Every structure is written in C-alpha cells, then in structure tokens.
C-alpha cells in the first residue's frame, strides 16, 4: 500500500517501533510545535487546512476544537475514537497496526491544541491485538519522554490511555463512546450539551477519529497551504478508502479527496474480478445509500457525494456485483442494525426489528406487494426521528436501495430471485 | 428566576420562564404533548420519541434582527427534523406545532413502533384502563396494525413479593430504572441486553433486594411492571378513588386509595399532587390491609366493675351502654378522688379535630390537665419542647425546599425506617440538586452510604450530646449566629444567651468532642463549617432524640446548633422534627401535652387562657398536669385512678413494661379506643371501637407543619365510631353541651380559637394546605447550655434501636406483606462482639436491661458498632420496653448467650 | 240474513281445518330465530377451559350495569382458563339486563353469548342473579360457539 501522506511510509519495516518512526520524521512536529506555537495558533492552522472529521460526519476539526471552553478549571479530555465498527471500514485498523506512533503524535498535538492533559484511545472490542501494539508504542513514548509529566521537555503534561470496548457498534457514536468509557451502558446521551462543552465525566472533551488525528502532525508540521495541495476547496486533504467486494485488489487506498469513484475502483483496485459486472457501490460504509453503476464518475468528496444523495461517510467502499441480490444484501445490513441498535429510542429499536422481519419475508419469497411501500414508509419514520444517527444509518440504506433497485424488490414479491436460488443450490438448501 | 420568553404552540402564545421544556410550556398553553420517558421528577431523556413536535425559530439576519415575512410577521425557520418536546428548552419567539403534518406523522409513526412488539394483551393486563400507551394509542395511533410478523417475547418474572414483570409490554422508557436509582437510591433495576431484546430486571435476575416501594410500578406508563398485591384484583374503572393522607409517618404523603365495594384494593400516589408528588414508600403503598381486617372491633366492650380476671371478662355492649358506663365511672372517680385522678393518653394517630376534642374533653369537661400524647417519652418534656427546637413556630422549611438545600444534617434517625419520604427527598436532592448530606448516626445507615457522597459522623452510642456540643462550639468559633436572610439580627433571647453558651462550650473543643464521640475532630469542625458556610442548610431529627433519656438536653442542644449554624434565623426555621406518627405534630399543636393549651398557649398565662375558658365555658386549671412518664408512675402508684388511652398500644409504647402492667392493673377505670382488641384494650374496662384513617375526614399536620385534608374513602365499619363521635358522646353524657355535627365544625372552632391557625378553613386546605407559621414565634427562643446530664451509667452493651422500613408499630403487625418483608427480629451484633459473646448462627441472646429482659435470635451486622447491640423496635416479637425504653435510646443492656433460638412462625 | 250467517260460520268452520297458530306453551316451545338474544352463556375452549379471562369489558360495556366480574390468578397446575387470569366470580343480574348484547360485542375472547333461552321467570329476586355456575356451559359443550 502507498499513498501521498498517511500511507507514505506505511509499509516501512518496523514502523511500529519508535526508532523507525523517528527515522521517517516522526515526532518532529511535536518538538517543533509544543511550547513554540500557542494552542490558538494550532487551532487556526487546522481550521485553515480545511481538515474535516474522517469518522463519517465530516465536521470541520478545527472548528470542533475551538468549541472547547477556554479558561475553565475543569480538566479537558481528548478521546480518540478507534471504535471502527462501520461495516466495510478498516482504515483505522491498518493505521494503528502499522503506525501507532503517528496516532500518538497526533494526539499529543491535539492535546496541546485544546490544552488537555489526558487522552484516551477507545478501541472497539475486537481490536485486542491493536491495543497491545498501541500499548507497546505508548510505553516506548513514555520511556522516550514523549508522553507523561513533561512531554519532550516542554513542561506540557500529557497522559495517554487505551480502553477496549465491549463490542457494540453504538459505541462508535461519540456520546455512547463516552458513556462506555465512563463504565456505563454504551448508550448515546442527549446533545446539547455537546462533548466539547460537557463530555467525559461532564468535562470538556474532544472526540476525534483515528484518521483525523493522524493527519494532525502533517498539517501542523507542514502548514495548511501545503496540506491543501490535495483535495478540493471544501474537502481538503487525502482520505483513506477501504475497498471491499469483488474487485481485483481490495484494500486500503489513500487518495486525494475529489478523485472519481471510477478511478479508485478501476485504476487502483484493478476493476472487477472474475469478469463480474459492477451493480452498485456503497461509498461510505454500510450506513450510506448505495450508488448504481451509472454514477461511478462521481468524485469522492463530501459535497459531490451529497449531491448524488449519498455520503462520503467513513470511506468504506463496498462493491456489489451483478450476481448479488439487493434484497438479500439489505436484509443482511438490517440484521446488523437490528442487532446493534442499543434499544434506547423507539424508532431505531422497533423499526430495525420490524424492517428485518419484512426483508426476511421478502427475501424468502413470502413478501407482499405492499411491503415495499411499507419499508419505505418505515425508513421515513425512522429517519430523523431516532435519538442518535444509528437510526438514520439503518434507514438511509433502505431508502437508497429502494430508490435505485426497486425493481429487484418488486421482483421478490411472492418469489425468490435467481441469485438466491443459485446460491441456495450451491449451498445445498432445498428449494 | 430567569426571564420570561414568549412561545407559540399551535397558535396559542404563552409566556413561560426561559429554559422551560417545550412539553411543560405546552401544558401551560393547554396543548397536549404526549410523553412516556419524561417524568416530572427525572431529568429529560428523550428516548421514547412520542413527544416529537415541529419546532421553528424566528429567522435572524446578520445583525440578529428577525427577518420579516410577507405577512409582516417574523419569518419562521422550521427545523427540518421533528424535535423531542421533552428535551428542548423554549426560547424567545419559538413556534411549536403539534398538529402539522410532519408532527402528526412523526407521532403516529412512533406510536406504531411502540406497538410493534407490544403484546396488546390489554384485557388481562392490570394497567388496562389507565395505561398511557392505551390512551395514546387511542388518541394518536392507527386503527389497524401493519405489523404482521412475529413479535419478540420474554418470559414474565416475579421480581420479589411486590413487583410482577411482564417484559413483553415494556416500552423501555427507563422511568423505573432511573426512578429507582435517582430518587430511591436503590439502583435495584437495570436493563439487560440491547436493542429490541432490552429487558428490565434486577442485576442478578434474583428477586429485588430493595425497599420494595413499588414506585417502579407506579411510574411504569404501561403494564410491564405491575403490583403483585393488586394483581387481577380489579379494573381501574371498578375503583372509586379517594385522595387522602397516608397514616404511616409524619411526612404527610398524599395517597390515592382505590376502593371497590367496601374494600380498599390498592394505594397509589398521584403525579403532581401532594407533598410527595406520586412517591409512596412500601408502607404507604401496601399498608392498607388493616382497614379491612376481619379482626377489627365492631362493637363496644365493657368489663363489669372489679378486677380483670376469670369471670370478669370484657362483654359486648351497645355503644350507648358503653358511653353511659364510661361517663358514670368517670364522674364517680372525679367526684371521689378529684379530676386529677383522671389522665388522658395518646392521640398521635388521630386527626387534628379529634385531638382537639380529646384535650377539650379532659380539660373543659373533666377538669384534668393530665393530658399527653407522647406516650413513648422516657424523660418528661414540656409541651413546647419540640416547637422550640424547631424555631418556635417561625416559618418552616418545606420538604420541597429541603430537597434543594445545599447542606443537610440528619441527626440520630435512620430515615429509611422513620421517614421514608424524607429520605427520598434528600436522595433526590443529592442526585439532582447537589444536596450534601451529613449523617450523625452510630450505624452507617442508608443515607450515610458512600455512594451518596455525604459524610458519616459515626458517633459512639450515647455521645449524641457531646457531638451536638462539639458541633455548636465549632460553629460558634466561626462567628456569632447568622442574621436572617433578609438581614435582620437574631432575636434578643439568642443574643442574650450567647455569652453563657460560649462559656459553657469553651470546654467542648473539637478534640474533647472527638474523644467523647469517636468522630475525628477535623470531621466535626468540617461539618460545622459546611453547615455555616453552605448557601442553605437544614437540620433534621426525629424520634431517636425525642425518646432519648436525655431528650430535654438534646432538644436544647439542637436549638443551640440551629442558631449557631444559621439553620434557625429570626425569620425562618430550617430545623425539622420528623415525629413518629401522622398526628404527632397535630397533637402538639392541639395541646395534647400537660402544660399547654392548643396553639402552645401556656396554661399558666391567665390572659391567654381566657379565650379558651370563654369558648369552652369552663374554668381551666392553671397548674400543668403530669407528662406521660409521670402519669405512668402515678398510675402505677395508684394516684391516677382512671386512664383514657386513645389509639395507642400503651403496653408496648410506655417506657417500662413492668410499670405499665402495674398501672393498668391498678387503675379503676381504663378506657381504650382503638381499631383492634390490642393488648392494652384487653386490660381495659371500656373499649370503644374506633374507625381507621380511611373512614373519616379531617386534617393532619405533617412534619413541615403543613395542614392537609384527609378524605373519607369508606363508610365506617359497621359498629365502629370515629374518635370524635366517641369523645362527643362521652362529653354529652357528662353533661357538656357539645353539638359538633362534623369535624369541620370542630375545625371552625379551632380556626377561631387557636393561635397560628387563625383564618384557616377546610376549603383553604385543598389541594395542598399551607404550612402554619406564627409571627412572632409562638415560643421564645433560648440559647443556653444543654444540661450536661450523663447518660445512664452502667455496664454492658449500648442498646441501639431504630425504625425498620417494613414495620411501624402495632398496625404494621396486621399486614401480612409487611411482616413477611420485615422478617424475624434479631439482635444484631458487630462481628467482634459476636466473637466475644461466643455466638453462632441460630443462637438466641438474653438481653437484660434496667427494666427487665428479652430473648431474641441473633445476627451479625457490620453496620452495628462494637460495644452495642441493635434491636429494631417495631417488630411484633420485640417489646423493647421490657428492657426499660420503648425506643431503646440511651440504654445499656447486658447480653448473654441463651441457647438455641425458638423459631417463631415469622 | 241467513246468507250472511252462513258466510260467517263458514269462515269459522274453515279455521277448524287450518294449522293453529297458538303454541301450547309450556307443552310446546317456540323455536327462536337465529339472532334472538336470550339468557347468556359462558363458552368453553375445545380443551374444556373457560374462554372468559375476567377482563370485565362486558361489565363496562353493559349499559344496565348488570354484570359483576371479579378476576383472579389461575393456579398454574389447575388452570380455569388460558393464560394467567380467569373470572373467579361472574354474575349477571337478569332483572337489570336489557338483552342488548353489548357484552357479547365487547368480549375480546368470544366468551359470552346471548343464547335462545327465554324462560327466566322465578319466584325469588335472588334467583335472578345468575352466577358463573349457571352461566358456564357444561364440559360436554366444550368448543361450542353459537352460529350468528
């Protein structure tokens, strides 16, 4: 793998070790920035760079940082959201696994910018081995005086802890993550107050995605203008895309924002494998509506994706070929959301369950014609009415699938599709 | 308070304080926004989504000026998504629509989702008919279901003896979990699993180990949690509902009795009603069974003259015969031995009007001042003692304000057993309003638990006075008594007493107090500092001090501390006495004490006495009568020959069991009015059948001195008479011209005559009566050294006692659920003491006190300090007065192993 | 005149040979039409358990306030009805009943029906309070539902 920025040295052997990381220029920004630039200057640079959150929502990072109240007596916290649980997304995993120190460096710098003395990395429950890698790197950084009471001799105190979740998708939502981090049930909290004002232990807290934080050393080290050489006006920088599905070379690709989807899939991933034909692409993790093959030339940036009715999301690009049944795919997604709904709010808790039942019926050929409109109406009733975005995440794919592939759903009323029957016969399921 | 803002809801504009939630503003605008997860006592959650409304704000231009629309009005920027009304605070110019297409569709959609997995088993659900889900489904739901797939199911569970859980009906509003945690401080419920599989249960799925208050059932908007005692008993429309006041303690909770036919089937709280606002404790909610007990007295009983014994048993008599007999005997004794040979005891469980009549009967008709309601007193106390310690009648803090007071000192009582609602007020305050608790108690009672963030002053038993002196001294070291909030100086009496008090307390350095109490000196100083320096403060005490052998000194010390910390000021009292019974405060107010007339008018004051003499048309004796402990001694010695005991199991409540037996045996005439043939009634010569709280109406005064109306929920049990009727009948038989038709007539007389009650009428007491207060104070304050009485010296273990939640006096023994929950009474020992006595599980222990002995089964309890034994006093099997004190305060007992415990049937 | 007399007698005579309208009640009984509403029955499931669950919807629907129901919880070992709840007491006051059939309409369990029995006279007032024993159909009629 390679890329212009984050993935530039990613495959350097031993990069997870401090020495190698320093050799490729690591921690230089920490030494250059801490105590030399004021926190406000740092925030201004990040604002000017146009960096937007890489976790999915795309909120401007510098702006978020500037919401942290100044001059408060309460402690401030920096939390790294490494609960990478969006189906189809696996960028943070590679970033932490191969280059843990870049995350540590990013967190030290972000901690400096918001004047926080404690950082937490919240890892998803399945990332046990990453916690070991990260803990190892953190220990190295402590030993080298890059973390702790006196970071790099600047007098700035910054402690870093890792925390392993218990395996819930909802904990990727920032307030649920904070609840979980405090030891409570992982359920989202009311906003406002936003975490930047009242977050972890009711103190000002910034929650940033791994990829966002990994960008920080580069931006503060090289400047906003340099960073803007990649990307578009409103979507600056690069983005790691995690491509999965029947392409020749699936995997993580770091590309400047604004690159057309077709370039990613055909040039970088080598096009479809086994002569399969592309039917649809889910561009930003399972929570966003899919794009049909006809929209493959859409540039991969926040605005262009919104223009075609979907989102850049977390950059988890899921490729679906012609032989895959869309009803089955949506059922599969919906089972995931019904399983992961935290149960706090009614529309998400009950709606995902109900939609799963309807999709199961449709997929098995027992659906009714009215079920399709019912699905659309239920998605409409969930969208925008749930407590947190999980409900939206379950409703948006339904709307997207129905918008572009309604015919397949109609075909499924009262019968099973060819793709299903073919798969069943392969797996020995009696018709 | 914050500024007012104008908000328009469905075209109705209302002005509400900024920060009001949209749902509350809608209530003001008389627009209905449905809610499930939102609850008046809990912070907003926003989970159920049924309150979704469309919200718009005036569009503003760059200068912050509202943009005007085509019609000249401000242009409204509608939020693209519907918002939850229960979490959104209003702001100026906000426009809310609950009837727009977006809002209607959102609400309808949520309603449909709520019913997706709901079993719709309304016909067999106890909530059916008063179910909020049912009501809102009728109001907003579709008339058919689009859901045809299988519903998820759970198995129903009994969560202990009170709560039945049917999780299929649950809508996961989390009210129960949050109420249990934030208001009860129990944290007994939790959600298990997630998503649609979320199920509320206890942590370990075992029966709930909690206060069994049933408030989770109360707040459940659907039938997921229902009360087992009421299971399938009736449908709500069968019940006549009567709101009255709970009889189980002095907190004055509003309780709604559900009556079918002649039977009370349940008791509930009522949202936004009464001091308790829906809260009820286990006693209030499940303690109504005695009303319909088959063992109730249904006619008068009379014993022919002569000693009790074989051949001289109580015989049924008509009410008229019993009245005539009682009157004749009273007249005879008064004529022969003088009125001073007659004494009146009890009355703490009566209504205000009956209390007034009781003492009027004694004073005006019979001419005796031997009247005392405080039968449990160990030491004689003047009738004004409690009022004086709580500010002499100055405007008192309310329970609502107590829940917002920043620093609260709880003295001596385990509020869980004595005043459950007060405890809930403090716990809620602690959780939601930043109340800091300081609990002075030898045991680590619930309020003193670490999780409530307070400070526990675990004083050595018997060192209560030392602690109060130490605290007062530390508070006075910080300065003179504080001025009133309005800036007024403390009263002259306080200023006058200050030098002497300072001198007397000079010896009570924190170090000496620490040595005497075992509480670190720094903790005493810090507690005093917190009390003095907090923005608001209050002191709560109760029966533990009232029934203490050193009660007089303790009450003076509480008053000293009140003035020293600013809990008492010239204009306000933040010291609460939470007495044991619903009528404790009323009895004191109505002069059921030997030295004061109603309204704390001193008998000795001829001018103040005159209006009473005129109204009652009688000459009143100026000399104070005997207090309850003195009456006990006088009766045992034969000086008091006739006793009238009303609503009081004197055999158990008098401080000395042997003495009380002797007094009852020696008295020529004992009249008892009660619901049951109690042990005291068995020893009586005339027994009047009285009615219960549910069968009469009147007024009760709670611990914050709030007057509240009680209502009649049932016709009186056939044959039973209200105490007022009994007193009036006897008074008339004695020649008095009483002609009260109802208790309201009596209250009119009270309102005319009693200082502090002027101008009140029954009509002014609904829905929530006022707290009576008096300017100037009814009783002058004083600041003087509390008499340094040494507690009863002696050897052995300190006897610690206290209320338990599930029992409170003799009526509690009649309720099967409460006795079952209370379990067997045990003498509880610290592990060290347990070892020293060589006890093993299943043993019994013999406790010997100055008054006698008692044998009890034993248990280990780490909350009991070493050198002490804890015995709950309210159990049926425990008659603590056999040891020499009904409440066990300030007593030392010898403990010795007494073989294997005989298991009683409990 | 003779002619008129004869015509009249002829009519009378003619009636001798027609089937009489009068029923010899109580020796003969009228067969009621299908939708007649007479004395109530409480029906049973096929397995013999009572259909009534004691929900009291009949009682609340009754415009004459003639029905009294008191529910109780089934003994799991010897249940009276399906589910947890059954009617411990079920009484209809036939002096109040107006045979409107609202109870039947209201019943969610198809447990109560107004049947064809119309012979409700009695000498004692108490006899008009029909108890559950009298209303509940026998075990032999388990599963019986009237045709409507």
How many helical elements of chain C? 4
Radius of gyration of chain B: 29 Å
What is the arithmetic mean of pLDDT of chain B? 93
Mean pLDDT of chain C, as a whole number? 94
Compute the number of strand runs of chain C.
5
CATH level-1 class of chain C: Alpha Beta
- C-alpha Rg of chain C, in Å? 22 Å
Given this structure, which CATH class of the largest domain in chain B is correct?
Alpha Beta
Q: Tell me, briefly, the overall form of chain C.
A: elongated
CATH overall fold name of the largest domain in chain B: Rossmann fold
Give the number of domains of chain B. Answer: 5
| Measured distance between first and last alpha carbons of chain C | 56 Å
Helix content of chain C: 10-25%
Neighbour order of strands in the largest sheet of chain B: 16-15-30-29-28-17-18
Tally of structural domains of chain C: 1
Number of strands of chain B: 38
Distance between the termini of chain B: 54 Å
Rough outline of chain B: globular
Order of helices and strands of chain C: HEHEEHEEH
Count of individual helical segments of chain B: 28
Tell me the CATH architecture of chain C: 2-Layer Sandwich
